[in-house]
Amino acid sequence: MTIEEIRELIQLVSDTGVAELEVQRGENRVRIRRSFGTETNIVNQPSGAPPAATPATSAPALKADSPPAKSEPQLFYAKSPIVGTFYESASPDSPPFVRIGEQVAPGKVLCIIESMKLMNEIEADVAGIVESKLVQSGQPVEYGEALFGIRPL
After folding, report:
1. What is the Cα–Cα distance from 48 to 29, expressed in whole angstroms?
2. pLDDT tens per residue, range 36-64
3. For the segment 2-32, what is each residue's pLDDT rounded down to a tens digit?
4. Which residues contact residue 69 at a Cβ distance below 8 angstroms, ignoring those fewer than 6 apart?
5. Which domains does the chain have, with CATH numbers?
6. What is the full DSSP assignment across the chain?
């Protein structure tokens, strides 16, 4: 992919309000993910390559006043396997299944997604620390939408 094609994808994400876009052409893959601010993150990597060994671009030409990117550990995103309504606890009076900063193990229940009157428990796939909760309780979610950011241990 050329820089111009990547810029067009960034513009598409900005114009449509899509939270995340991933495009794969042969061995090249580009993922553009909008954060809650105005910043757009871009990762361009060959398929199957480990994240640490791939080049990453955060579009410095588009944000001239941004500070240099810090090297932060790659987050794993727990994503919704179904369309439904996100709930962070079993009932309105119950505490959330997980909190930001909490350590989780594979199989730990992170949340519930209600779909067609069925309550589906969503479990962690990796051991790590919950870094971010990306949706609010009671909010509708799409298939593949990121729910939590987990920093693997």
Report:
1. 10
2. 544 444 455 554 544 444 344 444 444 44
3. 778 888 878 877 777 777 777 887 777 787 8
4. 56, 58
5. 3-57 (no CATH), 76-152 (2.40.50.100)
6. --HHHHHHHHHHHHHHT-SEEEEEETTEEEEEEE-SSS-EEEEEEETT--GGGS-EE--TTT-TTPPPPP--PPPEEEE-SSSEEEESSSSTTSPPS--TT-EE-TT-EEEEEEETTEEEEEE-SS-EEEEEE-S-TT-EE-TT-EEEEEEE-
C-alpha 135/C-alpha 51 separation (Å) is 25
* Residue 146, amino acid: A
